[in-house]
Hints:
This protein folds into four domains: 1-114 and 306-327, Polyphosphate kinase N-terminal domain (Methane Monooxygenase Hydroxylase, Chain G, domain 1), CATH 1.20.58.310; 124-304, Polyphosphate kinase middle domain (polyphosphate kinase like); 344-512, Endonuclease, Chain A; 517-719, Endonuclease Chain A (Endonuclease, Chain A). Helix 2 runs antiparallel to helix 3, helix 12 runs parallel beside helix 13 (420-433) and helix 18 runs antiparallel to helix 19. The protein is built from 20 helices and 29 strands. It is an alpha/beta fold.
Amino acid sequence: MTEIAEKTNYRDPAFYTNRELSWLQFDYRILSEARDKNIPLFERLKFLSISASNLDEFFMVRVASLTDMVHAGYTKKDIAGLSPQKQLALVKEQTHELVNMQYTTYNRTLLPQLEKNGMHVITHHEELSQKQSEYLERYFEDNIYPVLTPMAVDSSRPFPLIRNKSLNLGALLKKKGDKNAEIEFATVQVPSVLPRIIQLPSELFEDKAGVHVILLEEVIEHHMDKLFLNYDVICAHPFRIMRNADLSIDEDEAEDLLKEIEKQLKKRQWGEAIRLEVEEGMDKKLLRIINKELKLEKEDIYYINGPLDLTFLMKMYAMEGFDQLKVPSYKPQPVRELPADCDIFEEIAKHDILLHHPYQTFEPVVSFIQRAAKDPKVLAIKQTLYRVSGNSPIIKALAQAAENGKQVSVLVELKARFDEENNIVWAKMLEKAGCHVIYGLVGLKTHSKITLVVRREEDGIRRYVHLGTGNYNDATAKLYTDLGLLTCQEEIGEDATAVFNMLSGYSEPKSWNRLSVAPLWLKDKFLYLIGREEQNARAGLPARIIAKMNSLCDIDIIEALYKASAAGVKIDLIVRGICCLKVGIPGVSDNITVRSIVGNFLEHARIFYFENNTSPEVFMASADWMPRNLERRVEILFPVLQEELKQKAIHILQVQLDDTQKAHLLQPDDSYAKVDRRGKVACCAQDTFCAEAVAEAEDEKKDDVKQNRVFKPETGQHLE
Length: 720
């Protein structure tokens, strides 16, 4: 290491990016997909919808947290040297720019393209012909009017509580026939139980073929006079409130965590208002009345040029008849190592099995638990659950296992954000079925993904284990890219038992065989592995790190990466979302690249490659490189030990590094730019994995590069 490197302060705030601003860059990357003319039109609608949905959650949690810090007078600076006040100001400034770009994209690009392709969106009720208006009037009276609850505000009726994220119409009214009457305020919630997109019969549009739609709030606004019969409606405009939805629970004081979370969930709908969206051109008096109740600052009000809450575009994406404007849907492929009707335990006993979702089906994971529930040789099933689907076959299998007399222990993480209510329902159901349910650990979220099946066989007890990077959710397994390992290696089985004993009985093992578990050991493991590459580079030995994750913001990890880079370690990071590390700092991060892949599937897997002086080690984990994962959650890092599977994992990393279609490269100014494709072979990692999974499932002869060669990351070459 050079003298300059030795004197470098690797914790200099100038070397770090604020995590909230980095997250906004991530949402910009999603929005950039909506603006990409090379992507099918309806896919662009989907990306715009996702950017809006993400922004909602960002405000309800991250902006809400910053707001709480400011209110509490908290002034400690973050790793980038920004106080909460400064972060909040920058976040609001950039969010206004992001929202403006969202609606510019919608109005100037997507709406005209929809019109050209036969999807006609009626943006205002004044565009309707008499015949169309008559149809919508009948539709309103039959389907909408009975559901609405108009609410006036006067001395006897206080300002109503407006639910979080609900879409509402505010109106100014004046009593009919009374010139001296005061102007009054009223509001009506746009019912979320009704479809927001209303399709009109094509015969009403004889002059224009295609599909014609109008939004629910536009129809309600058109008929506001029917809700307030004794009043003249002076004006009506949509508005939407975002509230603080970050749960605050003192677990030490909560005697029953389940009841405490149930109580806090009700408060989420009525938390402090932190953002107000209003229609551009809203009557100033109407806006003053609404904001008098909410008490928001000027920068917390967003004037929207278009329909509020763009998440409705996901419903438009799902409409039939526009398949030519979408990417063909992909069907997850069967796993070659687990043929239909095989004995899954027998197959796992032969060798470890690596599963790559959603390219390969999630069915083997479901089947693993279902068969364990019925197998008379299985004595016990133990599992952690963080997020599961609404109609989870895994939950049903666990309940059946308990009813079949097996010992079933399930840790249900009640603190899984925005899934708390769902998880409470499952926890109660599992308890009724006879499962032993653990509600997480005080002060920690259990984010690890592990299942242990204990089976009595001829030669004694054998433990089968599934370890994963993603949730036990059969629905999101079709949308998220994740990896899972099925194994019955004795050392991993022993460690799995130790994990569950730790979760249920607080007994910490003195040592581990193969697994590394947060919050006690995992961070030290990562720092050791990074430090080993640094030492190898200093000694002139081969050194390389490739790491794929969702987020990177832990200062200790970033400092270790900077030191390794300064020592000459080549480091390639594949980080989907937040990245607080900066590239291109002379003498500090010259050897580091960061890319983010934003594609049709959400990148969720965590893979870590360490060259280890030509004896590569590959790990997978439930954890990102974030303080919360390494210090405040129960997470598991597991090794990929069998050489064939190790090569599969390395192949996944290399294909992602080769991506020229969906990869965005981090720049020294903290912005991201699409990979320069000039002179490079076109490669979309997700499409490549889809094609490979299909080819493998069909048992087609593979290219010898994929089948017979081993990739060596330290040289960037395939060797026979």
